[in-house]
Design brief:
The strands form four sheets. A five-stranded mixed sheet has the order 4-3-5-12-6, sandwiched between helices. A three-stranded antiparallel sheet has the order 10-7-11. It has helices at 3-15, 18-25, 29-43, 59-83, 100-112, 127-135, 151-160, 231-240, 253-256, 287-302, and strands at 48-51, 54-57, 90-96, 118-124, 141-146, 163-171, 174-178, 199-202, 225-228, 244-247, 260-264, 273-280. The chain has 303 residues and is α/β, with parallel strands linked by helices. The longest helix has 25 residues, at 59-83. Helices cover 41% and strands 22% of the residues. The protein has two domains: 1-88, Orthogonal Bundle (Arc Repressor Mutant, subunit A); 90-303, D-Maltodextrin-Binding Protein, domain 2, CATH 3.40.190. Strand 3 (90-96), helix 5 (100-112) and strand 4 form a beta-alpha-beta unit. The chain is built from ten helices and twelve strands. The N and C termini lie far apart (48 Å). Helix 1 (3-15) crosses helix 2, helix 1 (3-15) crosses helix 4 and helix 2 crosses helix 3.
Length: 303
């Protein structure tokens, strides 16, 4: 086993294709495939499953990847310390439900980055995909919430996929509405108050389970429902259609302007949302993942 082989594995995972990885590192596809097969034979494991759609990590491959990343990262640090080598391009990915505070934390992270080059990814995506991203080590961490309704199902998924959930804060339900909405000046609202306004929620694709909904009270029947896939569209519709969505209540004027306001939502069963992040228990977070989590914790403490 060589350091070069470990770097090859990381590139294949990054590009999710042996062919694309080979193009990026300027070797032939057969040479890269042979290197992977030699490593698998030496270790006695299968790192990748190969099929018509491409490649995916096996369970052994996921575990191996966590160690390989740590070895390569530590090697890079040694080279920088003792050879004055230019730092390598930093690559990191985070997945999250559609939270403004996560964007704020990401902005703060990027501003504090000292790397000459970096390639960071912030994926605002569906709940099931967040779990898959962290399980497959595509993302270092994922941000989502638990409550009494989805907790049992979500924790079962976390256990099955070797994920750990860490709490950031507990939020009482609020609604986001336009500052021009007739309810914007009220101290609180009820679902009955909102019944004539369009309800906006994030669609969950093929895994459209109530348990994966980003909004609590997802099983409540509503007269007008609009599904959207991104936060920008949702905010535009809140303003353009006087719609509403159920949320944590955290909105920031520096990134989101003053056209959206947050109003507490009264609920019958004293509902709450435990917002937190998940990590893959098989790997240690990288430096940038730790910094991102620190920024999340600072912002949530302030809120």
């Amino acid at each position: 086993m060589t350091l070069q082989q470990l770097k090859y594995i990381l590139k294949i995972v990054e590009y999710r294709s042996i062919t694309e990885a080979a193009k990026n590192i300027y070797i032939t596809q057969p040479a890269l495939s042979n290197s992977v097969r030699d490593l698998e034979a030496e270790l006695g494991i299968e790192i990748f499953m190969r099929n018509a759609k491409g490649i995916t990590l096996t369970a052994d491959g996921e575990e191996f990847l966590s160690y390989a990343r740590q070895v390569v990262e530590q090697t890079n640090l040694l080279e920088q310390r003792y050879t004055n080598k230019k730092p390598l391009r930093q690559i990191c990915c985070f997945s999250t439900q559609h939270y403004a505070f996560a964007v704020n934390a990401f902005v703060n992270l990027v501003k504090k980055t000292n790397a000459d080059e970096y390639e960071f990814t912030l994926r605002e995506t569906r709940t099931y995909e967040i779990i898959e991203d962290v399980r497959n080590l595509k993302s270092e961490t994922g941000i989502l919430y638990l409550n009494r309704f989805n907790e049992k199902v979500m924790k079962k998924l976390f256990t099955e996929n070797h994920l750990e959930f860490y709490r950031l804060f507990t939020a009482k339900p609020h609604v986001f509405i336009s500052a021009a909405n007739p309810l914007a000046s009220q101290k609180s609202v009820t679902l009955e108050d909102l019944s004539d306004f369009p309800y906006l929620c994030f669609e969950q694709g093929d895994f459209n389970s109530f348990y994966f909904s980003e909004e609590i009270l997802s099983t409540v029947s509503r007269k007008k429902v609009i599904h959207v896939s991104d936060r920008g569209t949702l905010f535009n519709l809140l303003i353009g259609l006087n719609g509403y969505t159920i949320c944590t209540g955290i909105v920031t004027s520096d990134l989101n302007g003053t056209q959206i306001v947050s109003v507490p939502l009264e609920t019958e069963n004293d509902e709450s949302m435990e917002v937190g992040y998940i990590l893959n228990e098989r790997t240690e977070p990288t430096k940038y993942a730790k910094l991102f989590i620190e920024e999340l914790q600072k912002l949530c403490k302030n809120y």
